[in-house]
Amino acid sequence: MLFHVRMDVAIPRDLDPAERDRLVAREKARALQLQEHGIWVHLWRVVGAYSNISVFDVQDTGELHDLLWSLPLFPFMRVEVTALTEHPSTQRAGQTVAEPTVRPPHT
Amino acid sequence: MLFHVRMDVAIPRDLDPAERDRLVAREKARALQLQEHGIWVHLWRVVGAYSNISVFDVQDTGELHDLLWSLPLFPFMRVEVTALTEHPSTQRAGQTVAEPTVRPPHT
Amino acid sequence: MLFHVRMDVAIPRDLDPAERDRLVAREKARALQLQEHGIWVHLWRVVGAYSNISVFDVQDTGELHDLLWSLPLFPFMRVEVTALTEHPSTQRAGQTVAEPTVRPPHT
Amino acid sequence: MLFHVRMDVAIPRDLDPAERDRLVAREKARALQLQEHGIWVHLWRVVGAYSNISVFDVQDTGELHDLLWSLPLFPFMRVEVTALTEHPSTQRAGQTVAEPTVRPPHT
Amino acid sequence: MLFHVRMDVAIPRDLDPAERDRLVAREKARALQLQEHGIWVHLWRVVGAYSNISVFDVQDTGELHDLLWSLPLFPFMRVEVTALTEHPSTQRAGQTVAEPTVRPPHT
Amino acid sequence: MLFHVRMDVAIPRDLDPAERDRLVAREKARALQLQEHGIWVHLWRVVGAYSNISVFDVQDTGELHDLLWSLPLFPFMRVEVTALTEHPSTQRAGQTVAEPTVRPPHT
Amino acid sequence: MLFHVRMDVAIPRDLDPAERDRLVAREKARALQLQEHGIWVHLWRVVGAYSNISVFDVQDTGELHDLLWSLPLFPFMRVEVTALTEHPSTQRAGQTVAEPTVRPPHT
Amino acid sequence: MLFHVRMDVAIPRDLDPAERDRLVAREKARALQLQEHGIWVHLWRVVGAYSNISVFDVQDTGELHDLLWSLPLFPFMRVEVTALTEHPSTQRAGQTVAEPTVRPPHT
Amino acid sequence: MLFHVRMDVAIPRDLDPAERDRLVAREKARALQLQEHGIWVHLWRVVGAYSNISVFDVQDTGELHDLLWSLPLFPFMRVEVTALTEHPSTQRAGQTVAEPTVRPPHT
Amino acid sequence: MLFHVRMDVAIPRDLDPAERDRLVAREKARALQLQEHGIWVHLWRVVGAYSNISVFDVQDTGELHDLLWSLPLFPFMRVEVTALTEHPSTQRAGQTVAEPTVRPPHT
After folding, report:
1. Where is the Muconolactone isomerase domain (chains A, B, C, D, E, F, G, H, I, J) (predicted)?
2. What global pTM score does this model have?
């Protein structure tokens, strides 16, 4: 099950530099680990910002929360979570998913 | 798995009154049905607005999307979805869930 | 009488760690107490944030205010209160409440 | 129990003028009636806008919702509800209410 | 002449506690004084926030400004001022004020 | 007593052209009249928008409201009113007004 | 080169149903085509909305613009484009990209 | 050439009081000077805020920028600049400026 | 003198197609003309939107306003104007402009 | 390939003045260098703010990100990136680019 997550990071200037480097290194290690486990499936840098846009594949919302909450840089993040599902116009969906006829949403 | 959903409804004035009543009736029937199935677990009216705040218990995000997309009034709704998980300070959680020590989020 | 409350918590980094742990522990105890008294009727964690969405059942607005104001973490919270009432499409309401015919709100 | 309500009215131009005058007249009659019953306790016009700021004294949120929902102009209103309670610095409160010591909210 | 004022207070955590108590006490005394003089005509606490909604009856905008500017907690407030006038649907207005026919504002 | 007013005008396309020209002409005549009476003391066009920024000198808020409400284009305006008062750093104020010492507002 | 694009679709209710179905079908065909060409690399449905979050791999901004502009549903979309680049904590980047030491962005 | 400028001032609490008084005094002197030179043509205090609304008459944007940038309190200001031009409904314009027929902006 | 202008265009669907094509053609001709006169000095398309970002070089604000107001598509535009001036770090400025020492703006 | 970038700079007051001057000087040198290389093609100061509006001509998004991330003042900037492409109404485009017929975007 997929979740789109934007993380805007702002590490306080007065954080001890060594502590910051430790946190950043642990964050990077954790990210690589979660990618290896097929959980952190997409991770992109937003151009011009200390932010990323990611997609997580998790069993449920509890797993996603614990995962985000455990990120070393979590205390310095603004996190926005958007639930995703399969889009009817994807190749994979082409075979399986027929979305109810598209009715014109409220305009 | 729980999702918090706010729905703000605005049915266009020029919708045929009979069609509107049909939609509203089908919406009510669908809501009652989903409550009976234990999916629509909470449904409250927001005071002073044609809006509701609901909580859904679903298997995954796909089920939630299809369910919302199939609501008769969906085309006239603005929908805001927030993923929920168990809070460590709930009675149930008291026995089971120990949230990692609370670190001060970014301030 | 029900109120929907979202609390976004941001404990300052420079708060003495022992004081923070005390506050968090007292907050948890207070939350469990109010749940036992049937006042704090719902408490969920918002995924990816140090925030909760709650529903309180209180006698009046004064009780809700005093309750929120007395939470140990109140000084570090951004609180959003939404008044709720029974929705005409709930099972309970099915028997009792007939909402005036739904007229199309302003679009 | 007091609620602060802001109502921003926007009657569609293409509403039949006679119907509009009827609605406005019924709205005025309803407002006068609710004032006589001590429910609509304050009603002011916001300068430069077809909006009002009001204070309602109601038994509970259900009564407030039904009252607002039943206003003839409700379908053409944007409504914002804020729950109020007694302020510790009011003359009346001076005798009765001692608010827990004011701790500095989150800054 | 009436003005609606919302004040959101946020006293910095690092303000000397004794100084804070002095300010809060002086603020309360000032509020009581202005209420006695019939200037601060309404003062309510916003539920769940260190905020108030007030109505002031003043001679002119200069008096309102000086009054707000002189409040002990003014340096720690976010203040929103809305000019009010008599609403044509109030009982008092019923006898005196006939608002020009209500034309449909821009929608 | 001075009020700063921003008016954003949006005349619907489907308004009968002759009616629009009549309204615009009456609006212009009314503006010139109010300027002659020293009430509409400043009127500037916002560059790139069908908007103006104005300053009105009125006796009280009621006069300002009636004046705005009576503008021919009022039904097609979004109006923002800001109460003004004399600034202590103006030449006129230099002689008369000594603002209480400037304390640092909340930062 | 990757771009993150959110598309919020709102097809007007008064669009001829046959025309709408044609547009939706052509949109789906175009999406499948671009996916086959490896340009539309990710396409997800946002839960509860007639919206998608996509990632495009294009040669340059001109190609992205022409592509979006040519989508059958483009006239009924609100489009938000975010430029992406490789994140230093991705597995691929692990070998190649060493981001300049992370300095604490403005807080 | 006229520019409308809103300045919201927030002097940090921890600024040395003597330095703050010096800055405020120099700001006042500068404002008086620019008024005498007919550059700072209007200066009003926004009621209830440490803010002013001003109108500057300058040769070009460079002059306005240098002037604002050189204000002693500039480092503690949030500045909003709006370009103004003559309104066709002003008395002066009545003789000179005939604005192209007013077409209904986008609604 | 330079002004940065963003124009978001939204031509109503129900505009007669021939009229729309005429307007678009006249808009294009006007844009080319103003570019030839060195007034419309930069014109870029915002990727994914019917919007442009432009820079105009004009004598004064009046000229800019008349120019924008006279654009054939002006009635269907949302226009945002930002006054620009020379930046001290430009090559040209390198020789001429020494900006007063940069003091830290309000943070 | 062009990108429009707005940078709002806010250097913390408590940054060592010498360090600030060093950063500002290095920022200026870097800006001049990138202008010489034809990468930083436009750089304007926003009137009344410690902000600039720039246009960069880069090979891809990665180059833009690294460039922005390496700016000495990046840690104290809020950066907004907008992808640009050639506008069909530019002189250059006049010869080459024929944009698909302009269909009325969603209104």
Report:
1. 1-89
2. 0.91
